Amino acid sequence: MHEFHYRGNKLYCEGVEISRIAEKFGTPLYIYSRKTLSDHYRKIAQAFRSLKPLICFSVKANSNLAVLKVLANLGAGMDVVSGGELYQALKAGAAPKKIVYAGVGKSKSEIAQAVREGILFFNVESLPELALIDQVAGQLHKKVNVCLRINPDINPHTHRFITTGRVLNKFGLDMQTAEDIFLRRSIFSNLNLIGLHIHIGSQITEPKPFVQAIKKALRLITRLKNSHVALKYFNIGGGLGIVYHREHPQTAKEFAAAVLGLLQGTGLKVILEPGRFIAGNSGILVTRVVYIKKTEHKDFAIVDAGMNDLIRPALYDAYHEILPVIKTSRPADQPTSRPKYDIVGPICESADFLAKDRILPNLQAGNLLAVMGAGAYGFTMSSNYNSRLRTCEILVEGKRFFLVRKRETYRDLIRQQIIPRNLR
Ligand code: LLP
After folding, report:
1. Of 46, 64, 162, 218, which one has the fewest beta carbons inside 10 Å?
2. pLDDT band at 9 (very low <50, low <70, confident <90, very high)
3. pTM for the structure as a whole
């Protein structure tokens, strides 16, 4: 499933001891396994091979250039949602004709940038956005491809913050509006309306919501066909769940088995946009215990990573497994019961925790801990809150490891700031 495992009492990533990397680069730090990234990409590619889909990695999950490059080298396209993500996808060597661009708030300059770069298509989320892309395309004398993102109003049974395909969410067009736009498509003279896009949410563990959403979209596609609107692409989005704790998510094979029958024979080129499935279990956050603080009510392990490094527990109450990087054997004079810890960071917020009430071996200051499943929405959601420096990132490949992002320095904190002359 992933390449983080114990050999004896030491946690390894592929062929490298985690503690060796932590000693060399300091903590906190993110570590990614190239093999796990590649394996997960191949699992989806293999499961869907009969359709020859375009698999666009969702850059928001992990935008490190080396990670993107690993995937681009395997033939992956990229799903981007901002000018910054587009810039990085291109810098990592992704082919423009394999890049799709979603998001409800694309600005005029971002649209122009993507049109100039010649991306495959935009996933359009509203009528005013469609009109703006048409206008920009006209100004740049280009004919631009767009898919309409529909909101199929399906409950994906996941956390409410990562549910996107319900009518009260800001995403996509309602089915009727989308149909009307397709039927009146000739008014957008600089656009080719060539496909449909759905993405109903993230960390979805069962195939049923996907099947329901795809069926709804296919009914629209059939209605359009009957009205002589022929589409070329069907983008079924991302959202495949992974194991963080005790989930039993569908495998890529099971997901494919549930949806392939619906997609085969449509004649449409299928696009997938997995993020978490590829990157989630390919990365960990390594942190060091700074203090053990015992109170009457709780034992806290205060560590050097905080909510600014990994916000998922604070934001979604997300569960990440915590493993000791080196398993220590219990000294004879210690009680047999294993203590429970809250693993908390140094930030001045009560939401600054990585894990709560975890039964772990006795911890001491200086111990290294691995926060598992941190390869997706980990570093990309990190910040400088409390003026903390963003971590470095390491890519492991067999017995070798590479620094793929340097740790920030204090200079980085003030680099873009200006004290007005009258205050000097
Ligand atoms: N396509 C679109 C249009 C998306 O909005 C997303 C994710 C994806 C694909 C990739 O979804 P995935 O395969 O990774 O589930 N920060 C949250 C997740 C937010 C997902 C946003 N959209 C978290 O940490 O759980």
Report:
1. 46
2. very high
3. 0.97
